[in-house]
Amino acid sequence: MNQPNPYQTPGAPVGQPPYSVGPGGGYPMKPGRGGMILTLGILGILICGICSIFAWVMGKGDLNEIRAGRMDPSAQGMTQAGYILGVIGCILMLIGVVVLVAMAAMGGSAASNFDY
Fold first, then answer.
1. Average pLDDT, stretch 44-63?
2. How many helices (H) and strands (E) does the chain have?
3. CA-to-CA distance for 62 and 67, rounded, in angstroms?
4. pTM, whole model, 2 decimals?
5. How far is Cα 38 from Cα 47, in angstroms, rounded to an integer?
């Protein structure tokens, strides 16, 4: 009366997620976070520059893990794109801060030159 469960994922033991297997069939690999990193990179450029910092840091860490063979390489393209967008977003945010500071400095000095 020991029948297999027809709803079980083939090849995955009960109670364990279907992770990718590392090189040589050893330890399970971490799942990739490429979609999240790409989303953070896009949000960092379009809406909130702080997201760019997270995309840059997380993307760099995940790319290092993928190259070391500890993370699933299937999301490497999205991770790379999110990392690049994170770097671009941080550069744009830095340029914006410099322009804002320059405008504030020029606005403060220009106001002191007028006679009321």
1. 95
2. 3, 0
3. 9
4. 0.70
5. 14
